Each structure stands twice: as structure tokens, then as C-alpha cells.
């Protein structure tokens, strides 16, 4: 067996013992990242990391501060700054070929190394990922348990916010709009805004930011469920006593939405882990960073991120994918799902001037490993589902069609291509709601990163913009003087 895979298969307890026999890179990284701190709370663990990290950043800036990290072409300035290296974001890094790594760990590695729900969970607990994102360490089971308990303690949403959410025009207002409103409504409890108003020193902002981040993350499952039940189930909510005893965030989300199957709890844990973070330049993460850089508190910053996530080229794509798949099935009618029939329908989408949702990516140049993780879940739990068969067949057809079209830089499927059919299989059929789930997950990564923005004292963002006339004059002048 491949050495790295073997090492990961060992799990954290045996990892140390395997030290001498398996000196692979993955093994070394995993052992290095196993939590060695005696911290019993996440807050303590983050605190212990801040001074060393500030020192590291100081040293890097001293040594390399004046080096050129990247150069920006005119095309990049017009083209959404694509691939321009102009920001630092610690919690995750996206490789175009390999996909996302959370603090250095790929998705399969996280699935092996992070603690799971007892007694028989197979997917990592999102609380373990939160610890990893915030501290860079693989937590022990008891550390994850402490996060679970902390979030559980904070999970209740203030009744006045629930009342306001109940008053929204659910039939006319998209669930993402309701979600963004809800996060803004929660803002009045921000500890960071309060500390700032009382003159707290800048060096302490991270503490209040972390406090807000944990409270907000803890409350999002209940907020999402309120929106779901109000919009699609006539305001009939799951009784609080059914949720109170639930220990982990994934299961709390599943149960609050009204689902009672263990397999769906597992899907929610996987979903929350997969969608959590995708480095810093994507629209939602960058919006959170940008708004936070004005020292807007985590609630205001995250609401901005959600508004970006609600765009169809970003998080709304998962809703669009399911709609597109269902339309495709309808158009197929009694015709079989052959390559030729599917090709024809894909071309129809392109000829109408639409993108094929769930394919392509601004950074990735291979199949998204988040797609692969969901495919593996489907192969295990719903191999015969008709919609899964359709998604599998499209995996063979769409990349070729997009290559023939000749425009896309990446013809392979992304995360959004797969999530909808899994949710639908378990009965969550209301695709308008899907991006809300994405948003609950995205809080884990973007808010962890925001805590570090404040811990490292990053300044307000203010890149320089220029006009088309400025560009013309600048380069014309340069060619005259050359
Ligand atoms: N179908 C048809 N055309 C596509 C395409 C797709 N799936 N993906 C890209 N293209 C087109 C672009 O629209 C662009 O055309 P124009 O030159 O006419 O504008 C051209 O191919 C080059 O685009 P690109 O450089 O390959 O891709 P971008 O970095 O500009 O955009 C997107 C990346 C993800 C926005 C794009 O691939 C897309 O629109 N995909 C479909 C929507 C989608 O799945 N979005 C979710 C992405 C993942 C995510 O953020 N999830 O939240």
C-alpha cells in the first residue's frame, strides 16, 4: 500500500508508534500537527499560537518584506485579478491540481485524522475541523468534545431574532436573503463591537472576534433550520427538547431541519467539513476578509460573505445544478441516458448562452476533491439512485463537451455538481435552500481566518485602482520614453 495512505490509515494513536518505519512526508506532517498542547479549550489553544505566529510573520516580513511576490498584468486587472498572489490567508491553501488543503491536510487526510462521532461515525466532526483551522493542530478527542460542548452551550438563538425571522415574507424572499438578514439581526450581541466601543486595545480584538465567531457558528444551524421550516414547512418547527441533547453541530443541523436518519447526520458532518474553506480569494472568503478589515465585527463581515455566496457563479451554483439536472431529466423523457442524448442537451444549454452549472473553476484544473468525497459517499449509500446515475454519466460527457467548446480553462466538475442530489435523496428537495447549508459551513473557515486577521493585526484593505485612460496614458508614455 502507498506509504502515505498506510500512515493515515493508522489513525492518530498509532501514528507516533509508526515513526521509525514510515518516514513519509504525510506521516511527518500528521505527527507534527497532532495536538501536543494541554489546552482544554479552543480559546486557550488559539492564545498559545498567537505569539509564535506573530513572531513568524515578523521574521518573514523582515527577511522578505521587499521581495516581489507577483506582478499584475493589465489583463489581470480587468480579469478579476485571477491568480494574482496579493493576499495572505492562513487557514487553507488551494492547489490547482490537488485541490484544497486545510492547514496542510487534504480532504482524505482530514477524513482519516479528525475525530468522528461516537460510536460509529465515519465522517470527521466539523468541530474537529474548526480546531484544526483555528490552531493548525489535529485535536484530540477530548479537545473536540470541549468544542462540541462550547458550541452546544451557545446554540440557542435569542427569541427576539426568531420572532423577526418568523415575520419575513418567506414565500417571496430567497432563503439566502433571509439568512443574511438573520446574521445581521444577531449582530447586536457582538462582543467585538462592544469591546471596540469601550476602547479595547487593538492587540485584544482577536479575543472578541473569536468569541463572536464561536457564538455565530454555534447559532447558524438553528437559524438555518428556522428559515427552512418557515419557508417550506409552514412554520412548524422541531420541538426544542429534540435538539437540546444533541452534541455535535452536524447532527444538530440535521435534526433541527427535521431529519432523523443517522446517515443524514453523517452527510451533514461531511457537508460542513467539505464546504468550510477554499483559501482566501474566493468571493465569500474575500468579502469576509475585506469587510472585517474595516474592523466591522464578525457578524457584519460574515453577512457580507453570505451575500457573495448567494451569487450563481459561486455558492448558488449548487441550487442551479439540481434545477439543471431535473430539467435535463424532464427533457430526456423516455429517452435513455446515453452519451449522445446527454451531449445534445449540454450543447443546448451552451447554445442558449448559459454556463453548465457545477463545472469549471477559477483555480482548480482537475476534478474537485470535494466532488470526489461526495461521490464516494453516494457510491456507498445511494449507488442505485437515478439522479446519482445521471451525475455519474455527466462526469463522462460534460468535460468533453466543454473541451469541444474550447473556452473553459477547467472542464471538470466542482463541489456543487454533486451536493444537490445527495440532499434530494434524503428528502431535502427544496433546492432554493441549498446555499444556506453552504453558508453554515463556510462560517467555519472564513471566521477562523478572520480571527487570525485580527490576531496578526492586518490593516484595512485598500488596493489601488486605475482607470482605462490611466492605463493607456501610462503605457503610451512609457513607450515614447523608451
Ligand atoms: N459552462 C460553460 N462555460 C463556462 C463554464 C461552464 N461550466 N465555465 C467557464 N465557462 C466559460 C466562462 O463563462 C468564460 O466564458 P467567456 O470568455 O465568454 O466569459 C470562459 O469559459 C473562460 O472561463 P474560465 O476562465 O474557465 O472560468 P472563470 O475563472 O472565469 O470562472 C467559474 C469560473 C466557476 C465562475 C465558471 O467555471 C463557471 O461559471 N462555472 C459554472 C458555475 C459554477 O459551477 N460555479 C461554482 C464554482 C465553485 C464555487 O465557487 N462554488 O461555490
From TrEMBL:
Domain of life: Eukaryota
InterPro entries: Citrate_synth-like_lrg_a-sub, Citrate_synth-like_sm_a-sub, Citrate_synthase, Citrate_synthase_AS, Citrate_synthase_euk, Citrate_synthase_sf
Record has Acyltransferase as a keyword: no
Keyword Transferase on entry: yes
Pfam family, one: Citrate_synt
GO terms for biological process, alphabetical: carbohydrate metabolic process; citrate metabolic process; tricarboxylic acid cycle
GO MF, any single term: acyltransferase activity, acyl groups converted into alkyl on transfer
Alphabetical keyword list: Transferase
An example Gene Ontology CC term for this record: mitochondrial matrix
Active site, per annotation: 314, 361, 416
Annotated family: Belongs to the citrate synthase family.
NCBIfam families: cit_synth_euk (TIGR01793), PRK09569.1 (NF007128)
Protein name (database record): Citrate synthase
Annotated source species: Cyanidioschyzon merolae (strain NIES-3377 / 10D) (Unicellular red alga)
